[in-house]
Write a structure and sequence with these properties.
alpha+beta; single chain; 11 strands; two-stranded antiparallel ribbon; seven-stranded mixed barrel
Length: about 350
């Protein structure tokens, strides 16, 4: 299987006194006895994606620690280049340790062989332009994760190179390099900037915790409002249904009232014309409906016409048979010449109205 390589940027940090105490004995001896070495402490990587959308999972930290000891710290001669081109070893990694989410390292720079490069890094570390390291990494496999990040597996560290354009974009802290006191054989570690960065990190973590708590409260409020909205929606649907039911009931009442009013007006027309409507027509729904379907104005005219001309007809037939005296105006018979046992029906009225309109 082919071994692939990639470059990952990290930051150089200082070597503390506590770090020196925790080193293996042979490394501690080198720190204390070799004055030509310039010691630095750095964060080699963390497990989060860098600007290139690449990352080293926590599970691979052990491989970095195992393979990274004695590997070179590299830099281009004379100045810091943006990338890895023309870089040469100017020191080596002495120790690596795995932390919860990152790997820290300690390296010795060869001041005797590369005094200019070491002095340049020391000046940069003391200023705002901090030197940073970019990985040269060997790996056997990589996986594209759900967010598009490429995660490397079965890794081995080849080198760490000082570059000008870091992939981690200054995310990890950078502090001063170790310096030797003029009147003391031991190295004096300057940690002021590191402490400031730690305080800043704590402040940021506090802000993250606060925002997380606020977000949790908002999620709870949203859930409560969502339930309230669901309840109100159900109540609104219930009220709407009741309103529609009431509207339908009112419509039925209005229709019944309109029908009763029209029937009363029709009966009033018959009463004014001194005619009666047989009771069975009011009791029979079909016949009652036929009566209500009649046009009120035409019916009024027709009944008025019958009332007037039936009286005239009665005068002409006066002196006839006894049954003929029971005429239209007497409220008993509809037609003085008709069968005396036959009352006026709505069908007769409708037929008469239709005949007056030309059969339409």
């Amino acid at each position: 299987m082919d071994i692939k390589t990639t470059n990952i940027v990290t930051d150089i940090v200082e070597l503390s006194t506590e770090d020196r105490k925790n080193l293996p004995k042979e490394v501690s001896a080198a720190v204390s006895k070799n004055p030509t070495l310039k010691w630095i402490k750095f964060i080699l990587t963390d497990d989060a994606p860098n600007a290139n959308m690449q990352r080293i999972p926590v599970e691979e930290f052990a491989n970095l620690v195992r393979t990274g000891i004695h590997m070179p710290i590299k830099m281009s001669q004379g100045y810091v280049r943006d990338g890895h081109e023309y870089s040469v070893p100017i020191g080596s990694i002495a120790s690596l340790v795995e932390q919860e989410h990152h790997v820290e390292g300690i390296a010795g720079l060869w001041r005797k062989e590369f005094p200019g490069e070491v002095d340049l890094l020391e000046e940069m570390t003391a200023s705002d332009e901090k030197p940073q390291l970019s990985w040269e990494l060997l790996y056997r496999a990589s996986v594209i994760e759900d967010d598009g990040t490429e995660a490397f597996h079965n890794v081995a560290l080849a080198a760490a190179t000082v570059v000008g354009i870091p992939a981690y974009e200054g995310r990890t802290p950078i502090v001063l390099m170790a310096s030797k006191h003029e009147s003391d054989a031991d190295y004096k570690i300057k940690i002021e900037e590191y402490d400031k960065m730690e305080e800043k990190l704590k402040t940021l973590q506090t802000q993250v915790d606060s925002l997380t708590a606020t977000n949790k409260e908002l999620e709870t409020s949203f859930s409560t409002l969502k339930e309230e909205h669901k309840t109100l929606k159900g109540e609104l649907e219930k009220v709407t249904a009741e309103k529609e039911e009431l509207a339908e009931f009112k419509s039925g009442i209005d229709a019944e009232k309109a029908e009763a009013d029209k029937l009363a007006s029709i009966l009033k027309l018959f009463e004014d014309a001194e005619l009666t409507v047989p009771a069975e027509y009011l009791e029979n729904e079909e016949k009652k409906a036929s009566l209500l379907d009649m046009d009120t104005k035409q019916l009024e005219f027709f009944l008025h016409e019958i009332s007037l001309f039936a009286s005239a007809k009665e005068d002409e037939e006066e002196g006839g048979e006894e049954e003929a005296s029971k005429h239209l105006g007497s409220k008993i018979r509809l037609n003085p010449k008709a069968d005396k046992s036959k009352d006026l029906s709505t069908k007769d009225i409708a037929k008469a109205l239709k005949s007056r309109d030309g059969g339409k």
